[in-house]
Write a structure and sequence with these properties.
By secondary structure, the chain is mainly alpha-helical. It contains 13 helices and 5 strands. The strands form 2 sheets. A 3-stranded antiparallel beta sheet has the order 4-3-5. About 12% of the residues have low confidence.
């Protein structure tokens, strides 16, 4: 009874996401640059659950009969996720009929039949498989004379091999990942070099310093690359193609804090920081200039959304200048 209700809610959500996926303007208007951020910010789904449901939603858009199979309980979200890459317009009816009400193992056997793979070499990674993966410190053999400083305190057994970033308490996050020997050696060298500043060699403190430096470097490089000199000279604010001069990009980037600056009617600001583009607030085609005042950061979704508001769904007049 409860399981049935949960399934119903889950299917409703997948159907809702499939509908939204087809009309990105709906979540864009509410201040969300992607279906992904809509799911995590508004629906409060975990990143894992979001991926699962968006994949299922897209599978339902491509093959609507999947929605009925989910609704009747004949197929689970997981089955849909693993089957989806093997479905084609030609085979989907037959494959879905065979997969319905089957266990995961049976579905995996079905996939193996659809897409036979060569045997994988028996040793691809240097990781133990039967026992929980050891912590970074215990995997390293101790040097003969002195034991290395601890790299991490004992952590709970690792249950997945994917990198993990999870919130442990407000403003604290646990990152768990496997690194190769080279990275490990670099960490050791940094621990030694930073012994005075970070006496206990805390990897978290070193990662923080590394991230700060890398972020600074990448942001600079991206802005430089985005502002490479064009073949023709560009006068600030007066370029005939609507291209954005470098100082303007820098100014807009700083003012918007490297984040999409779209704000919905009810005041929600978009949280996207990836694939940002320089957006003309007053469109270039309507005389808008490439000045700091008229240039604002937008994620891809919002640049597209606002361009469609002005020029319609097929409007190609928008100036799309991406940062990456
Ligand atoms: Zn956005």
């Amino acid at each position: 009874m409860l399981a049935g209700k949960e399934r119903e809610a889950s299917v409703e959500l997948v159907a809702h996401l499939a509908a939204l996926d087809a009309r990105p303007a709906l979540f864009a208007a509410a201040g969300h640059g992607s279906l992904f951020s809509y799911c995590t910010d508004v629906l409060r789904l975990s990143e894992d659950a979001t991926c699962n449901r968006i994949q299922a939603a897209r599978a339902c858009r491509d093959f609507p009969m999947i929605l009925d199979l989910l609704a009747s309980g004949a197929m689970s979200l997981t089955s849909v996720r693993i089957l989806r890459p093997h479905l084609t317009p030609e085979n989907h009816e037959a494959v879905l009929a065979r997969a319905s009400r089957r266990s995961r193992r049976e579905i995996e056997a079905l996939i193996a039949e659809l897409a036979p793979r060569p045997d994988v070499p028996s040793s691809v990674r240097k990781l133990p498989t039967a026992t929980p993966a050891p912590t970074l410190a215990s995997r390293q053999p101790a040097p003969p004379f002195s034991s290395p400083p601890p790299i991490s305190s004992p952590s709970p057994p690792i249950t997945t091999r994917r990198p993990i970033v999870e919130t442990t308490s407000p403003e604290r996050y646990r990152i768990q990942s496997t690194i190769g020997k080279e990275s490990h050696d670099k960490l050791r060298r940094l621990q030694a070099l930073l012994r005075r500043e970070i006496p206990d060699g805390d990897p978290g403190a070193i990662v923080d310093r590394a991230l700060t430096l890398l972020l600074e470097k990448v942001e600079k490089a991206k802005l430089r690359a985005a502002a490479k000199p064009r073949p023709r000279a560009i006068r600030p604010g007066a370029d005939r193609q609507g291209r954005v001069p470098r100082p303007v990009k820098r100014g807009a980037w700083r003012r918007d804090g490297g984040q999409c600056a779209f704000v919905s009617g009810d005041g929600h600001r978009c949280t996207e920081r990836a694939f940002l583009e320089f957006h003309h607030v007053l469109p270039y085609a309507q005389g808008g200039l490439a000045t700091v005042e008229n240039i604002s950061l937008r994620c891809r979704g919002h640049n597209q959304y606002e361009s469609e508001l002005v020029f319609g769904p097929r409007g190609a007049s928008t100036v799309r200048e991406a940062l990456q």
